[in-house]
Amino acid sequence: MITGRLSCDVLLYKMVSSVNTGIFFLLVQLMICSSRNLHATINPTIGAPWPMPQKYTPTGNVYQIEPSSFRFEATGETCDILTSAFARYKQIIFGTTLKFQPDHGADNGNALAIASVKVKSECDKFPSLESDESYDLVVSASGITINANEVWGALRGLETFSQIIVRRSLQYFINGTTVTDFPRFQHRGMLIDTSRHFLSVDVIKEHIEAMAQNKFNVLHWHIVDDPSFPYTSAAFPEMSEKGSYPGAGHIYTASNVLDIIGFARMRGIRVIPEFDTPGHTQSWGKGIPDLLTKCYSKGVFDGSYGPVDPSKNTTYTFLETFFGDVANTFPDQYIHLGGDEVSFGCWQSNPDITTFMSKMSFGTSYSKLEQYYMQSLLNIIGKKLNKGYLIWQEVIDNGAMVQPDTVVEVWKGGYEEELAKVTKLGYKTLLSSCWYLNYISYGDDWRKYYACDPQQFNGTDAQKKLIIGGETCMWGEFVDNTNLIARFWPRAAAVGERLWSDMSVKNTAEAAPRLEEHRCRMVSRGFAAEPVNGPGYCPEEYTKF
């Protein structure tokens, strides 16, 4: 492959030094290189929001904002979430707003000093699937107002307000603007994986801050898996003591978890933990003897272990206690229970499992055994702990009976057919299949993420209403503190706009200049957001310190 300036220089050298062989091919390649090197940069917009609001009407009127006198004012209900947001956004706006040199219109001489924020309803303690994130924003000569039914909408309005302010030299300006906005989908999630590589609390918080500034509202925390068990269970502390990576600093204490939940709450973000079983549980077995299935070879235990053993009553006693602790720790109504990628080989080898299969009249259908396990777990979560649950699509594919409010996450290929099947069964559904951002590629791959739409499948209007959103996933095989932010951002912003904005907002040519600005906006705010549109620059380049 020919990439970059150096390769073109090498081609030119070859063409000059070897005129007798392949000159036509080299000339063609040189033309390609020249075209690539002369690729025009994308000119960013100035003061345009991301994601695009449902209704966004800027005017030609420009008003100045004076940092020293500007303040936010709550004119309705207030709470710690709102007062904290006022302080945070004053720092975001006046501490890091992009320094644009081009003119931003004619200043009419009127300085706006107060942004009035009115929340109609008393603040909820935590965000939920039913939270109202709608808001209205008006900037005019008479002032700045943000009106929202709930505090969560006020947070989203504050973010939009912060984005439409621009700085020229040491002065701040804003266009007269009217915004009416609400999310297209209720669930706009991002999965992080802290088992394959540990992520520090500070990096998780930085990511949550980036989520809020892109209007995501769910942190799907895939907290444990086969490689390690960093979650500290109050009921079973030996699980993290024996199942986490060795050395200090590879566990999340109870205070760490509460700190992350509280930080997310202040930004209107739900934290949904995932504890995936019966597979993906090798780290669980290090702290809980006899939880996992013993694997046999030629009738003899071979020293290895497989999925959770569904044949033992002690398994379900443990699960009820363990998930009871999880339910008390995480305030969200939902827990993600996984249920994907269960290998049957170890179950097939185990004589006790074979005896149990016969007793239950399962024959040789290990899918029925998996269904039995998942059904037992779902009953514990739904009936005994009164929690809702999210599951990967395999649980439905394998025929388990689930609660009516179950949320099914579709992650495999052929997702259009799966979305049609799951919604036909009447379940709320999420899509993540096309948004696995841990798969990286050269070039502006944000466009393919932008093009994927959760409602593009063959179904009725009623089925499509059951699509409550989607998630972008960052599996951690090759991701840790060093690259989580840059690998997510701003590529994930493309997914954020798809899940927030109207379905009609889908033109990548129109989106590219706004994304270019938004990427630089994130850089100016301290995020290591990588380039996504090819050659270019930011007025304020990223510096780590």
From TrEMBL:
E.C. code: 3.2.1.52
Gene Ontology BP term (one): ganglioside catabolic process
GO molecular-function terms, A-Z: beta-N-acetylhexosaminidase activity
EC top class, as a word: hydrolase
Keywords: Disulfide bond, Glycoprotein, Glycosidase, Hydrolase, Signal
Reactions catalysed according to its record: Hydrolysis of terminal non-reducing N-acetyl-D-hexosamine residues in N-acetyl-beta-D-hexosaminides
Glycoside hydrolase family 20 catalytic domain sequence ranges: 185-502
Keyword Hydrolase: yes
Disulphide bonds in the chain: 79-123, 295-346, 520-538
Active site (record annotation): 341 (proton donor)
Pfam family, one: Glyco_hydro_20
GO cellular component, as recorded: lysosome; membrane
Every Beta-hexosaminidase eukaryotic type N-terminal domain range: 49-164
Family membership noted in the UniProt record: Belongs to the glycosyl hydrolase 20 family.
Protein name: Beta-hexosaminidase
UniProt lineage: Eukaryota, Metazoa, Spiralia, Lophotrochozoa, Mollusca
